[in-house]
């Protein structure tokens, strides 16, 4: 979706402010939100792309005003409600009013390392890769209302395939509950002038990781 | 003193406690419904606070600086190469190491969210997840580098990697001059978090002597 989360190339947000000696968490609740998200992910309640889409779908004003982990909390609550793991009256009451739904598994203290190690996103190949390193490609001009990982600034642009990363679960499919739909994944590199115009820094190159359905031969 | 705790004008504090209460309520609900175990949540928070951090990445970089075979392996398949270092926590698939050279400087961003190589760098700092960094890194990376006090020669190629999929990128910074013969452990002290994101350079011997 063309949400405010898709920030690449936007102006006006100001300088990057660095906090010296930044702690892992600024407030205790931030760590709890992160841990809840990890635990629900391990339990198979939803996929990482569902978490991303839930945040992207927040009203833009909310997205921009919320701190990072509060945005996670809002996205998590959205997924909990929409997927029927929790009901609105329970959120209002602050306690469970009925038993939980069955989940794949439960994260316990003895298997925490497993809950913190990232899943593999490699999937069985469905066919040969359409592109190889060195191929010229054009990204498609797509504007789905749903989740995609093709940023707006890189749509309809000429680039070159640089790396092939194998076949991966396809986020656009996963986040719409249509399954993994495995796709080849490539690093595609663009000259900055192709993206930002003739005045762009001539020494700058930008790459994205693009799933095969984002690309056509050029 | 009790009055201070209930000061209606102390808005910032009351907002925070409201957030704290809402998160606590969410945890209570999920625990009571049997989805999560608070002891596991404690262990996750503790691990992120004490075990996972940029030292893991610094050890990887220092090894690459001293062992040419490891450097080649790291640039070919970073997940597999890091797995051979038993003392570094396991990394999931899809880690890619990119090397800085005098000709090319690499910088990592996630414009769409906050993708970051947590296993080797720990939790991303607030600035990495912020709108200023996410918006400008792909369009004006030299301006972003200036915010970090870094100025590169104007002919240096800048390559920005936008982490739009599940691949995660680790920058292999250039080894500073004057470190010939240094041990891996001493070298690792030169490797900052920002140098592995590409918003900084490795520290020089003179900088750590200060």
What does this structure look like?
The complex is a heterodimer of chains A (218) and B (210). Chain A is of the alpha+beta class. Chain A has two domains: 28-116, Cyclin A, domain 1; 136-217, Roll (SH3 type barrels), CATH 2.30.30. Chain A is built from eight helices and five strands; from the N terminus they run ααααααββαβαββ. In chain A, strands 4-3-2-1-5 form a five-stranded antiparallel sheet. In chain A, helix 1 (28-42) packs parallel to helix 4. The longest helix of chain A is centred in the first third of the chain and has 15 residues, at 28-42. The mean pLDDT of chain A is 96. Chain B has a two-stranded parallel sheet. Chain B folds into two domains: 11-50, no CATH class; 54-209, Nitrile hydratase alpha /Thiocyanate hydrolase gamma (Nitrile Hydratase, Chain A). Chain B starts with a helix and ends with a helix. Chain B is globular, with a radius of gyration of 21 Å. Chain B has 210 residues and is mainly alpha-helical. The model of chain B is unreliable at 1-11 (pLDDT under 50). At the A-B interface, helix 1, helix 4, helix 6, strand 2 and strand 3 of A face helix 2, helix 3, helix 8, helix 9 and helix 10 of B.
In short:
In chain A, 30% of the residues lie in helices and 16% in strands.
Essential attributes:
heterodimer; A: 218 residues; alpha+beta; Cyclin A, domain 1; SH3 type barrels; 2 domains; five-stranded antiparallel sheet; 5 strands; 30% helix; globular; B: 210 residues; mainly alpha; Nitrile Hydratase, Chain A; two-stranded parallel sheet; two-stranded parallel ribbon; 13 helices; 4 strands; 49% helix
Rounded average pLDDT of chain A: 96
Q: Count up the helices of chain B.
A: 13
Largest sheet of chain B: 2 strands, parallel
How many distinct beta strands of chain A? 5
Oligomeric state of the chains?
heterodimer
Order of helices and strands of chain B, N to C?
Answer: HHHHHHEEHHHHEEHHH
Q: What is the CATH class name of the largest domain in chain B?
A: Alpha Beta
The first-level CATH class of the largest domain in chain A is given as Mainly Alpha
Uncertain stretches of chain A:
none
Look up the CATH topology of the largest domain in chain A: Cyclin A, domain 1
The average pLDDT of chain B is 91
Write down the Rg of chain B.
Answer: 21 Å
CATH superfamily of the largest domain in chain A: Nitrile hydratase, beta subunit
Strand order of the largest sheet of chain B: 1-4
CATH topology of the largest domain in chain B: Nitrile Hydratase, Chain A
State the share of residues found in helices of chain B, binned by percent: 40-55%
The helix-and-strand class of chain A reads alpha+beta
Order of helices and strands of chain A: HHHHHHEEHEHEE
Number of strands of chain B: 4
- Enumerate the spans of chain B where pLDDT stays under 50 for 5 or more consecutive residues: 1-11
Number of helices of chain A: 8
């Amino acid at each position: 979706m063309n949400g405010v989360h898709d920030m690449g190339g936007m102006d006006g947000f100001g300088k990057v402010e660095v906090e010296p000696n930044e702690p892992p968490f600024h407030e205790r609740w931030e760590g709890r939100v992160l841990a809840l998200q990890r635990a629900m992910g391990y339990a198979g309640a939803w996929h990482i792309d569902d978490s991303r889409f839930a945040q992207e779908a927040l009203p833009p004003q909310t997205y921009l005003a919320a701190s990072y982990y509060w945005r996670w909390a809002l996205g998590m609550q959205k997924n909990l409600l929409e997927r029927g793991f929790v009901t609105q009256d329970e959120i209002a009451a602050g306690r469970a009013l009925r038993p939980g739904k069955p989940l794949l598994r439960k994260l316990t203290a003895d298997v925490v390392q497993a809950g913190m190690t990232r899943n593999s996103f490699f999937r069985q190949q469905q066919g040969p890769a359409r592109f190889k390193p060195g191929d010229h490609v054009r990204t498609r001009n797509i504007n789905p209302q749903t989740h995609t990982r093709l940023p707006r600034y890189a749509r309809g642009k000429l680039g070159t395939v640089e790396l092939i990363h194998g076949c991966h679960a396809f986020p656009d499919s996963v986040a719409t509950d249509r399954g993994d739909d495995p796709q080849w994944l490539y690093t595609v590199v663009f000259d900055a002038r192709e993206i930002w115009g003739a005045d762009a820094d001539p020494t700058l190159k930008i790459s994205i990781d693009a799933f095969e359905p984002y690309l056509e031969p050029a | 003193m009790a009055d201070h705790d209930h000061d209606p004008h102390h808005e910032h504090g009351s907002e925070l406690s409201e957030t704290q209460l809402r998160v606590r309520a969410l945890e209570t609900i999920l625990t009571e419904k049997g989805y999560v175990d608070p002891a596991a949540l404690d262990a996750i928070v503790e691990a992120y606070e004490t075990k996972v951090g940029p030292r893991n990445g610094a050890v990887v970089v220092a090894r690459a600086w001293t062992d040419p075979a490891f450097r080649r392996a790291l640039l070919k398949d970073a997940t597999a190469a890091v797995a051979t270092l038993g003392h570094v926590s396991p990394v999931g698939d899809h880690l890619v190491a990119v090397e800085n050279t005098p000709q090319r400087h690499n910088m990592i961003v996630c414009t769409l969210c906050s993708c970051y190589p947590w296993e080797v760098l720990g939790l991303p700092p607030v600035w990495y997840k912020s709108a200023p960094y996410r918006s400008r890194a792909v369009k004006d990376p030299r301006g972003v580098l200036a915010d970090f006090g870094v100025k590169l020669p104007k002919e240096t190629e800048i390559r920005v990697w936008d982490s739009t999929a599940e691949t995660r990128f680790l920058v292999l910074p250039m080894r500073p001059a004057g470190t010939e013969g240094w041990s891996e452990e001493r070298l690792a002290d030169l490797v900052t978090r920002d140098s592995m994101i590409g918003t900084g350079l490795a520290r020089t011997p003179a900088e750590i002597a200060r």
